[in-house]
Fold this protein.
Amino acid sequence: MARSVRQQRYEVDDPAYWPSWREKWRPGVLAKIALYFGVCFVVLTLVPNTIWDDDVKQITYVIGILGIWRYSWWFTHAARAWVFGRFVYPKMRERAAEVWRRGWRPRHMHFLVTTYREHRDITEKVVLGICRQVREAGVPATIWLGSSDPYDERIIAEHLRLSAPDLDITLHIVRQNLPGKRIAISLVLRAMARAGLPPDDLIVFMDGDFVIAPGALRKCLPLFEADPELQALTTDEDVICRGPRWMQRWLTMRFAQRRIAMQSHALSGRVLTLTGRMSVFRAKHVTKYEFIRLLEADYLDDWLWGSFRFLSGDDKSTWYYLLKVGAKMTYVPDAIGYTIEVIEGSAFMRMVENFRRWSGNMLRNGRRAIALGPRRMPFFIWWCLIDQRIAIWTMLVSPTLAVLATSLKSASYMVSYVIYIAVTRMLLSLFLFAYSRRVDLNYPWILYLNQLTNSCVKVYIIWRLAKQKWANRGGQTAGFAGRGWQAIARETMARYLTLVSVTMLILGTVLYTGLMELPSWTFIKLSVFY
């Protein structure tokens, strides 16, 4: 019990804490992992081995080949992340630390904060985190607050008076006149542009529920001085979930995935998103009219849904602009903050809504980013964007084949498939454990359900890109209104295309694995004409 209490204290009060190798990989943890693989081996030996029978062995080959391909891609990311974290970033960190030791400080610290009726205690933690950063740097600062409610403004102003009487912090409130986070950010950026911020001033974009850990900006800001080409960066994140325990585990697992992916991408001098929770930008680009206009009125022309504006995904819009102009970006793995997620209502529906928002943002922005071509970005980043779309379908092939093989053969094939999932996802989880604070044996199953659910949601969204919902910002929706004949026709077409996509996936796997053969031309002629 003492250990669990201590661990909880670290998660809440010190998100930068990371257990030592010996503490994480205790003998009891290693014994549990060994027992896990032992149980899998015993079950596999007890179940009749039907996976190589003539009528299903082609299915086994396909599942195995797909697995090798996807796991090699996972290993590629893990290897690149290791190279970045072990060799590349330490050099960057040392150069930045030397800049800070020599006395360099930013001329002025700018915090662009957007909030919407946040819980008071969360807002106070956010303000306290900002004050710590300003006190450590010892320079003047401005909090540019984009808000829509006097409630948030009063809390921040009051807490600044209590927490920072010794600091030179100015609270600049920009009240938005239209709903939405994009409008709030764009209005603040317009105010910054009118204020004439120098191009090398650094602006910290952050959400109103993101608490910056001590020392985070000390590690981030001098990177821009050490590397004049660097235009933006994003940081590590962790999460405190005020909700079901399984939701905390799911989010923790996703952040471990994020650490691997971000470090892999950063090795190419780019990232795939400048996370809206917290990112740092040079003022050079973000105060330009083109940047602001893209952020506040970003849109997509879709053949089915026409021209529609983006609701969420402001971090993808800022990323796309910098990607388009060839700006260098990076990830700072040891600068961390944490988000406080308050789950109200159904946790499962919140998870699905998060998938819809994240996946929708990826699909809407990924298509146009791919269209830029590999000459506008490193080839590896361009291929990662393509792979995101391929993975939607490859993830669904193996469970589809497993169900078909079980229906053809026996339940023993499904048992073998479950053991295959248990072993392979544990092997993948071993990589995740290296980027997570603790070893959680629930990761293999959470990982598989995360992949399966995410792919299903993406298949649904890919034909409904205009439909958007954002529960975190007052339940905003887009693309749902309208009951006219045009709206009904579009939704009917989306359903038809979804059905065709799923049908083609099933038919393609069935035909490729030889479970069904196409009828010959002679058979078709006889069936039609006689």
Remarks:
- The two ends are 78 Å apart (CA to CA).
- Residues 57-101 form the longest helix (45 residues).
